[in-house]
Design a protein that fits this description.
The structure holds two protein chains of two kinds.
Chain A lengths: L15 H7 L2 H21 L8 H20 L2 H25 L1 E3 L2 E7 L2 E3 L1 H18 L9 H20 L3 H17 L4 H21 L3 H11 L10 H13 L10 H4 L11 H34 L3 H25 L17 H19 L10
Antiparallel strand pairs in A: 1-2, 2-3
Helix pairs in contact in A: 2-3, 2-12, 3-14, 4-5, 4-6, 5-6, 5-7, 5-13, 5-14, 6-7, 7-13, 10-12, 12-13, 12-14, 13-14
Chain B lengths: L3 H38 L1 H12 E6 L6 E2 L5 E13 L7 H8 L7 H13 L6 E4 L4 H9 L7 E10 L7 H4 L2 E2 L3 H4 L3 H4 L6 E2 L2 H5 L1 H5 L3 E7 L5 E8 L7 E3 L3 H10 L5 E7 L5 E7 L5 H4 L4 H9 L8 H4 L9 H11 L8 E3 L2 E4 L2 E4 L7 E3 L1 H7 L2 H11 L1 H10 L21 H8 L5 H8 L9 H12 L10 E4 L2 E2 L12 H16 L17 E7 L23 E8 L6 E7 L5 H18 L29
Parallel strand pairs in B: 2-10
Antiparallel strand pairs in B: 1-8, 2-3, 3-4, 3-5, 6-7, 8-9, 10-17, 11-12, 11-21, 13-16, 14-15, 17-18, 19-20, 20-21
Classes of the chains: A mainly alpha, B alpha+beta.
Chain lengths: 381, 629
């Protein structure tokens, strides 16, 4: 029995104070440290000013941290019960966005709720994770690969992914699909299915290129493959990002000294290309530290998943980790010119409220799993 | 408690988590490797690219060298022109903006009203001149606060101007924008907006000296090309100031004397080859060429029968007429075929085969020796003289006098003229040389062609006793004299030269053909030779008719050459008045007035100009049209 007695207090409900004591604070601390790196960079790219980004981001982080703790306090069983309703609401919001969403940077991604702007696609990352975890929680290992179980799971993924792709938001759709499939993989999908699907997938890529991608998405891929073909046009972002990263060297140009970002050669420096700013100003050294912190956070997440008794909890924990990992991989690879430009922020560092909230809510869920790691949830609740 | 099924599920989950973790670790390693590749292995390359992005090298156009005359009169000026332009569409409220600008640089309310009027008239994207000729202080101030004034563009231009306009057009030429071909020579400098190079005259010949070397401003710029700050500046070298050998007063007088005529005057120092004046009339205004020549001006210049665009002093080719006789005389003496006392009887004409060669004087001159023949310009004497001397000997002396060749004057475009000989005739006309040809050459007609410059060089070499002086107009660059080789001796017998001199002395001073043009300056007398070049073979009907009764374009060209003073000559002059009638009537009086002035302004009486040592005044300026917002 891999779970020992110290987690066996599952049946007993903890009070808030007790939960706060049981909380894995090292996760909160690492999250805060990474966010502080973000604040510093936002301060730097604004030319040494809290305006217009760093100040606002700090406030958002403060609010987000409260939300994180609140999410962590909610009992895992409650999340289990709320999983489908949240998914349903999110899906409806996505449809609403599709119907009446307003244009922003060529992608219909926002919905106005009073003064707030809601991004249902971000919310969907959490919702899908909960719903899919709940669904897979109820499926026996031997049944995961059965069509009767596999198709509903895939439907859970593809329904929102399709809607997000229509917006069009390739980055988020990728995260939804890859994250979701990751959960099915963890739940024990048979290799007999995995291997052929990957093979077919590789064969289908050319077809997808022809029919599924919009022109601007194709252009991103094309310029990625040959950025020098149009260094002042579409390849500009990739070229400038590589210049900024490379010119930073081992220790960087120094805080506030990044010429590429300060002189606006680097586009979207406060959002998509903030990793590049870190590289330019703090060099290889700064980048390795950030990657190390990310890895530490992921390891904590995997540990929590390993220590969790319920399949739902494990899948939620790993789902949060997977989402977080995908953000990191996509953003950093893009910044370094390894994949085409995709509008995915660097988690906890990039400027932007909605993505920050999603990530912090995700860690809230992870901590909820951690606090309630010992509880059992029946397979058919 | 975990049931059995769940524990199997847990083991699978753990295994697969391990697979994912391994994959993640691998990906992180890959990313780290990529970071290492970019920021360590390729660092040099990217650092250089980042610097290229950041630093914009802006060339600073050097100030073009000024041009002075020998006494320091500024002939071509260059001024920095600090201007402020406004692009109307980039400012929301031009009136308010102008009033704010007026607090920084002086702008009168009238000026503001004028600018607003211009804005109303012009297209919104076309710059409107707000003010120009700003002081450096004002210009710096407006540059510093340029960001506060969107739409306003400080701009530095260079203004080349020629204060004497048409009087020097053929000497100085003008500057204009380089052609694509020119740009290849020094691409970075020459492609600066508004940069101009010499396109003709001295401006072109001395362009490399006058141009200078550009400085550079290393600016930090942002992605939009906006200058954030200047990082470094290297000073350029301004162009060298050139001093010409010309005397502007003589130049002016010559222009005035030729007013309304088509002709040339060349005045030269016979010992050095320095040109005191070189005039082709009429001139054109070179100031009109430094900007854009309007089609109207261009058309007018081209249809003008007096051909103002031609530099006749170096490209106009005329038969030298009787001005060639001193050369023939010297050739005859040098050949030994004649001596000064050899007499020839002039009856008014001489026959050769079935052709009759006339003297200009119908009744003939009677018995002529060389002195008298030069004094009276007797044609029959020189027919005989040429016949005895032979064409080869005449052509050889003609070549020694600089005919049939270009001298490499610092005014591009010299024509070579023609000193004919049998070999030339065989080559060009496919015909043998006949005695009649020699007769014609004897009086400077036939195929002989000279430019006014060549006439002056010829006269100078005669005056200085046979020194091969070469004409030039540039005296010094930046006060450093242009060292010229000492003119070689042409090897004439001084006694022979003296005979010719005395004949020419008699022309003006002893009642010869130029008697009316005797100089009235004490100690500065002038010896000369008149000439009349036939424009077309005269018919018997036209011969002897007064010039005024013949249509202008059929009238003879009037020529005159002279040197002064007679003893130890210092200056030579040639005057050509196209269709001016006779040399003695039209050309000689002009020479008299000019030579009188030259004598008065001789450097013995007036100090030559030595330019002040150059100040390093490459003011922070770039080419016209660049700006430092």
């Amino acid at each position: 029995m891999p779970l020992n007695e110290q987690f066996a207090s599952g049946g007993r409900e903890l009070r808030v104070a007790g939960k706060l004591r049981a909380l894995n604070w090292s996760i909160v601390i690492i999250v805060t440290i990474i966010s502080c790196i973000g604040f510093a960079l936002l301060y730097s790219v604004a030319g040494g000013s809290f305006e217009p980004w760093a100040g606002r981001q700090i406030v958002r982080f403060g609010i987000g941290l409260v939300i994180l703790l609140a999410v962590a306090m909610v009992h895992l069983r409650t999340w289990y019960q709320l999983a489908y309703p949240i998914y349903g609401v999110s899906l409806m919001l996505l449809v609403a966005v599709e119907l009446m969403g307003r244009m922003g940077k060529g992608a219909e991604r926002w919905i106005d709720i009073g003064p707030l702007q809601l991004q249902p696609s971000e919310l969907m990352k959490i919702a899908l994770l909960l719903a899919l975890s709940r669904f897979l929680h109820g499926v026996l290992l031997d049944d995961v690969s059965r069509p009767s179980r596999l198709f509903p799971a895939l439907l859970l993924i593809l329904l929102p992914a399709g809607l997000v792709l229509m917006q069009p938001n390739l980055g988020t759709a990728t995260i939804l699909i890859v994250g979701g499939c990751g959960l099915i993989f963890l739940a024990g999908l048979s290799w007999k299915i995995i291997v052929p699907v990957i093979a077919v997938g590789l064969a289908v890529i050319p077809l997808g290129w022809e029919f599924a991608l919009k022109d601007y998405q194709k252009q991103r891929v094309q310029t990625f493959l040959d950025p020098d073909s149009d260094p002042l046009g579409a390849g500009y972002n990739i070229t400038q990002s590589k210049i900024a990263l490379g010119s930073g060297g081992v220790f960087g140009k120094g805080f506030g000294q990044g010429t590429q970002s300060r002189l606006n050669f680097l586009p979207e420096k406060q959002t998509d290309f903030i990793f590049t700013v870190l590289g330019e100003e703090f060099g290889l050294f700064g980048l390795i530290i950030l990657m190390g912190l990310y890895l530490l956070l992921l390891m904590q997440g995997v540990n929590i998943a390993m220590e969790t008794r319920s399949q739902f909890g494990r899948l939620v924990a790993m789902g949060v980790c997977l989402n977080f990992l995908l953000y990191i991989l996509i953003n950093t690879s893009m910044s370094m010119g390894l994949i085409p430009v995709v509008g995915i922020p660097l988690p906890l560092v990039s400027y932007g409220g909605t993505a920050l909230m999603t990530v912090l809510m995700g860690f809230g869920l992870l901590l909820s799993v951690q606090i309630h790691r010992g509880i059992e949830i029946p397979r058919t609740a | 408690m975990m049931d059995g099924r769940d524990s199997v599920r847990y083991r699978t989950f753990t295994r697969r988590t391990a697979i994912l973790s391994a994959g993640t670790t691998g990906l992180f390693a890959l990313l780290t490797g990529r970071i290492f590749q970019l920021s360590v292995l390729q660092r040099e390359q990217f650092a250089m690219m980042a610097e290229d992005n950041r630093i914009n090298l802006q060339l600073l156009a050097p100030r073009r060298g000024r041009i002075y005359d020998r006494f320091g009169v500024e002939l071509a000026k260059t001024a920095q022109n600090f201007r402020l332009l406004l692009i109307p569409e980039r400012t929301r409220n031009p009136k308010a903006a102008l009033e704010r600008v007026a607090q920084i640089v002086p702008l009168s309310p009238q000026r503001i009203a004028r600018v607003l009027k211009d804005i109303a008239r012009s297209k919104p994207f076309n710059p409107v001149l707000v003010t120009e000729g700003m002081t450096w202080d004002d210009f710096s101030k407006i540059n510093l606060s340029a960001l506060e004034f969107p739409g306003f563009e400080p701009d530095v231009g260079e203004l080349r101007s020629y204060p004497f306009g048409p009087w020097l057009s053929h000497v100085l030429g003008y500057v204009a924008g380089p052609t694509d071909h020119d740009v290849e020579e020094e691409p970075e400098l020459l492609s600066l907006p508004g940069f101009r190079i010499g396109r003709s005259g001295v401006e072109r010949a001395a362009d490399r000296e006058l141009r200078g070397k550009p400085g550079a401003s290393h600016n930090e710029v942002d992605a939009h090309g906006r200058v954030i700050r200047e990082l470094a500046r290297t000073q350029g070298t301004p162009g060298k100031d050139a001093v010409l050998s010309l005397d502007m007063e003589v130049q002016k007088l010559a222009q005035e004397k030729l007013a309304g005529q088509s002709g040339s005057v060349v005045v030269m120092d016979v010992n050095t080859g320095e040109l005191i004046s070189i005039v082709s009339a009429p001139g054109y205004d070179p100031n009109a060429f430094t900007t854009t020549v309007t089609p109207a001006i261009w058309r007018q210049l081209n249809v003008d029968p007096l051909k103002p665009l031609l530099n006749k002093a170096i490209t106009g080719m005329y038969p030298p007429g009787s001005t060639f006789k001193p050369v023939v005389a010297l050739a005859a003496l040098e050949s030994g075929r004649m001596d000064p006392s050899t007499r020839v009887h002039c009856s008014g004409s001489v026959s050769l085969g079935n052709h009759v060669f006339h003297c200009w004087r119908k009744g003939g001159h009677g018995s002529m020796d060389m002195h008298l023949a030069i004094k009276n310009s007797c044609d029959v004497y020189f027919y005989e003289c040429a016949r005895r001397t032979g064409i080869d000997a005449i052509a050889a002396v003609g070549h020694k006098f600089g005919l049939g060749q270009a001298y490499g004057l610092e005014i591009p475009g010299e024509k070579k003229g023609l000193m004919p000989d049998p070999e030339w005739k065989q080559r060009a006309r496919k015909d043998i040389w006949r005695d009649g040809d020699t007769y014609n050459v004897g009086i400077g007609q036939g195929a002989v062609l000279t430019t006014p410059l060549q006439l002056c060089v010829m006269c100078a070499r005669l005056a200085n006793g046979g020194k091969a002086v070469i004409p030039h107009v540039i005296k010094s660059y930046d006060g450093v004299n242009y060292v010229r080789p000492v003119p070689g001796d042409l090897g004439f017998n001084p006694e022979h030269v003296a005979v010719v001199h005395s004949g020419m002395d008699a022309v003006t001073n002893q009642g010869g053909t130029g008697a009316r043009s005797k100089l009235a300056v004490e100690g500065f007398d002038m010896a000369g030779k008149t000439g009349t070049a036939q424009v077309r073979r005269l018919t018997a009907e036209l011969r002897g008719r007064s010039a005024d009764s013949i249509p202008w374009e059929f009238r003879d060209h009037a020529l005159f050459i002279a040197f002064a003073p007679v003893i130890n000559p210092r200056y030579a002059i040639s005057v050509v008045v196209e269709h001016g009638g006779g040399g003695s009537r039209t050309a000689a009086p002009i020479a008299k007035d000019i030579m009188t002035l030259v004598g008065q302004r001789d450097p013995v009486r007036q100090k030559l100009f030595i330019p002040p040592s150059r100040t390093a005044d490459s003011t922070p300026a770039s080419g016209t049209g660049s700006h430092a917002t």
